[in-house]
């Protein structure tokens, strides 16, 4: 499997001929420095953790251009359908769907999920993390936006992720110390990739504090160069 980070919480997974985007926030993302055409080339699936604009991002445009199927919670999915989305695979927290060669499972996250329309907040389903499993590949857990919570232990036991994308930016998610605590307390990972930092000025600007908090651990901290695929 190859994983590409596009800044903030946007990732691409390439494995066994599949190309999957998670939370493709490109337009308006100060950390997005990649070639957009290359970032979406061959994409067949988009996975969304929750309904905030910095995670939904370019989903509608990418789905229109590529024909990709969008997998997300039912409420957010139906809202996207009302905006023109043609291919929706709806699900919700705890569910697993077979996407043809891999599965996606939505798991709990401690956050919020919605948008502001004409000054009024609208609810877009519960926030989630997403587990991606494919035979012969590492199990990937994108935590979405979240705080630490004790049920991470159940997620670890049930799904046994080996790679995790972990928000560390603070203010809207866990900060570096809490994120490192959660990784050390609940998971046995081969590698952890910090995210949700280095984009907007009001969140952490680097992964340095997280790297320091993880020092001495068996779990490898991987900080990819934005737009450059890494093999895991």
TrEMBL record:
Q: Which domain of life is it from?
A: Bacteria
Classification via InterPro entries: Metallo-B-lactamas, RibonucZ/Hydroxyglut_hydro, UPF0173, UPF0173_UPF0282_UlaG_hydrolase
Molecular function (GO) terms for this protein are:
hydrolase activity
SMART domains recorded for this chain? Answer: Lactamase_B
Residues of the Metallo-beta-lactamase domain: 7-196
Q: Known Pfam families for this protein?
A: Lactamase_B_2
Q: Does the keyword Hydrolase apply?
A: yes
Keyword Metal-binding on this protein? no
UniProt keyword annotations, A-Z: Hydrolase
Q: Which SUPFAM superfamilies match?
A: Metallo-hydrolase/oxidoreductase
Q: Which PANTHER family match?
A: UPF0173 METAL-DEPENDENT HYDROLASE MJ1163 (PTHR43546:SF3), UPF0173 METAL-DEPENDENT HYDROLASE MJ1163-RELATED (PTHR43546)
- What's the family? Belongs to the UPF0173 family.
Identify the HAMAP family for this entry. UPF0173 (MF_00457)
Its name, as the record gives it, is UPF0173 metal-dependent hydrolase CH341_03105
| Organism field | Rhodoplanes roseus
């Amino acid at each position: 499997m190859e994983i590409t980070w596009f800044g903030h919480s946007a990732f691409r997974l390439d494995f066994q001929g599949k190309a999957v985007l998670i939370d493709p926030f490109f337009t308006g993302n100060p950390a997005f420095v990649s070639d957009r055409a290359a970032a979406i080339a061959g994409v067949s699936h988009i996975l969304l953790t929750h309904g905030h604009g910095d995670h939904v991002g370019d989903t509608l445009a990418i789905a229109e251009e590529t024909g990709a199927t969008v997998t997300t919670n039912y409420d957010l999915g139906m809202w996207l359908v009302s905006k023109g989305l043609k291919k929706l695979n709806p699900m919700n927290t705890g569910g697993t769907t077979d996407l043809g060669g891999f599965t996606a499972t939505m798991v709990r996250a401690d956050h919020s999920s919605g948008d502001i329309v004409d000054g009024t907040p609208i609810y877009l389903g519960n926030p989630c993390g997403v587990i991606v499993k494919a035979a012969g590949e590492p199990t990937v857990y994108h935590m979405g936006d979240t705080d630490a919570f004790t049920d991470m232990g159940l997620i670890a036991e049930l799904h046994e992720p080996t790679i995790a994308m972990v928000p560390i930016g603070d203010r809207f998610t866990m900060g570096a110390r809490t994120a490192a605590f959660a990784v050390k307390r609940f998971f046995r990972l081969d590698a952890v990739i910090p995210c949700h930092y280095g984009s907007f000025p009001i969140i952490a600007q680097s992964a340095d504090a997280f790297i320091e908090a993880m020092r001495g651990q068996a779990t490898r901290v991987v900080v990819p160069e934005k737009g450059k695929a890494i093999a895991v």
